[in-house]
Structure formats: structure tokens, C-alpha cells
Amino acid sequence: AMLRGATVVLRRALSSGQGPEPGQVPGSARLEPSLLRFLVCPLSKRPLRYDEATNELINEELGIAYPVIDGIPNMIPEAARTTQKKPPAEGSKQP
Amino acid sequence: AAAGLCPYRALLARRGGALRAFCGSVRGLAAGPETHFGFQRVTEAERREKIYRVFESVAKKYDVMNDSMTLGIHRVWKDILVHKMNPSPGTLLLDVAGGTGDIAFRFINYVRSVQERQLQRKLRHHQNLSWQEIAESYQEDKSKSLGDSQVVVCDINKEMLKVGKQKAQHLGYSEGLSWVLGNAEELPFDDDKFDVYTIAFGIRNVTRIDLALQEAYRVLKPGGRFLCLEFSQVSNSLLSRLYDLYSFQVIPVLGEVIAGDWKSYQYLVESIRRFPPQEEFKAMIEDAGFFKVDYQNLNSGIVAIHSGFKL
What we know:
The complex is a heterodimer of chains A (95) and B (311). Chain A is of the alpha+beta class. Chain A has a domain at 48-86: N-terminal domain of TfIIb. Chain A is 15% helix and 18% strand. In chain A, strands 1, 2, 3, 4 and 5 form a five-stranded antiparallel sheet that branches. The A-B interface holds A 32, 34-35, 37-43, 45, 47, 66, 70-77, 79 and B 27, 150, 152, 156, 158, 161-162, 165, 178-183, 186-191, 193-194.
């Protein structure tokens, strides 16, 4: 379900180059869709996923996210944050 | 303490390519080997930090300083670079260390004027078009006024990019222009993507020039061109002496008066002296894999444009 959601987000991000999407991130702060053709992770040179909600470029393999600030992606590895994988069924294992 | 080791380190710095490449690739390696910041000896990490701070400090006054230091001649140098590039509509340009957008804007202007001229020529050959047809032809070319040309400006310094983006808004550049915060030594771009790679007055501020050249090679398409505009060595001895006088006596003073920053401009002048001369830089570019590497001196070598091709 999460993968499907991500694909929808990516497709929406690629198609809607014009107006700002209704949501938290204002149009001017979002990543320009045309950049997605070129951008890769500077460390692994592998493709990235643009997360429209958090306005970040995610490298799933390495588990890092590069922020987009004022529409400018910050592709300096030191600036990237690690994406913590949530443990499955949190809180269901009560003693 | 470093004094005694200095000559050894200098030798290591020049010859230790393989070792340094390994060190560089192991991320998180502490300070790194010794290098220079202007005429000071510092570690690689220190150098990167210092240079970042220089440009953070000068960003807002960068353009003004360029005009005053070079008496506006830098504009001509940059014009010559773009003319040499001679981009046709549809060209994809990556401008590295392009912070305030000088090359990017010139590229856009150039491509636009080429488009315009092509349109004029097309219309002149179709004398018997109806008004409807003429109006239509204006429509379709308006939407692609750049003809799918694109320029990506990549810089490591947030402040410089900010200034560049503001300038773009001010001057009305929006289409076909994007901004990325990235490191020339570790570009966030995929292989074989760009038609042209430019770096104007930026490469001497890169700590590992060899890595930047390798990255330039990687991201260029086969047939793509590398163009570097940079301060170089003056061969004429009289001019050289006048140039030294101007550089060391006038420029830092200008820096203090205009930007309130003597030190940054002292660094600038020293970094120019530190940068390898034309032939040596040419060899470095060839080492990265480029072919037909050549250079063109401007103003007797005060500035040089190096060019190479990826085959």
C-alpha cells in the first residue's frame, strides 16, 4: 500500500508542474519536476524517490533523505537525514 | 610542526593520487591529507570549511566585487565563454559552481536569440502565409522560447545559490533554469546526461580538482563538452609584475572597502596564484579522460578557457 501511495505521489509530482498542490508545501518550495530526470543520490548515483508530502528526495536503499528547501534540493550528503524504518506492528507486543 | 614535513607532504599531494582517491572515497575519514588555503597549509576538511565561509561571506557582494576587481571585464570573459560554447536550442547545460547565475543567464539569452533568428528566417521564407498561419507559428514558438534548452546551476554554497535565484526572479528568468545544492567532487547527477559542463571561476576553489574533473566526465553525454573559465598564469613578465601589484595591493583593499572583508579577497588572490598553469591543468583534464583538450588565453593568460570533449 505504501509503495502504491509513493507511485501516485511521484506521478502527481511529475505531472503537476504548474500550480501548487493543495497541501502543506507551498508551490515555490517544491522541487521542479524536470530535475527528477537528472538527480541521483550523490553517494550511490542511484535513483531517488521524490516524497511530495515531506518535500524530500529519498534514497530507499541507503535509507537517507535529501531535503528540498525553497525549491532547491540540497544534495550534500552531510545534509541528508537518515530515514528510520518503523518496526512492524508497533505496540502490539505488550508483555 | 608541519614545516619539516612540508616538502614531503607537497610531494605526496602531487603523486598520491591513488591513495588520496581511496581516502576520499572512505567517507567520514577525519581531516584528510594536507592541502592549501591560499598560501596557508590546512587539511582538506579545513580548506572546504574555509572556502565555504569565504563565499558565504561574499555572496551578496559577489557581483559588485567582480565588477570592481576586474573593471567589468569579467563580463566580457563570460560572454566569450558562452560564445565559444555556441549552444544550439535543445542544449542541456550543467553549470557547476555557478552560484549567482552569470553563465546560466548568458546561456539562456544566447539560446533565445538563436531561436529568434531561426524564427525570423523561417518567416522570411514563407511570404505567402495567411495571418492565421503566422499567428500560429508565433504561438508554438512562444511556448518553447528556449527550444527545450535547459540549464542546471549547481553550487555547494547555499548563499550563492540564494543570490542567484533572487537575481533570476529579478531579471525574469524562470523557464529552463533550475538550481541544485551539490558538490562538484560528488555530483548528484546521473551518468551521460548533459551536453555541456561549464565551471567558471569555480574550479580553483574545489579541493579535489581531479575528482571534479572525473565527475564532469561522468555526467557528460558522449560527444559532450567540458568548458572551464579560470584565472591562469601570465607569461609576459612586465604584465605579470603589474598584475601581481594590482592583485596583492589593490584587490584586498577593494574587498575591505566594498565588502568589509579583506581576508576573503586575500584568499581569492592567493588561490589564483596557487592554481596550476595552463599546460598542467590541460594535463589534468586529459587525465580525467577528455579528448581534444585545448586552451585559449584571454588577456595574455590572466584568464584561460580550457575545453575538452568526452568521446
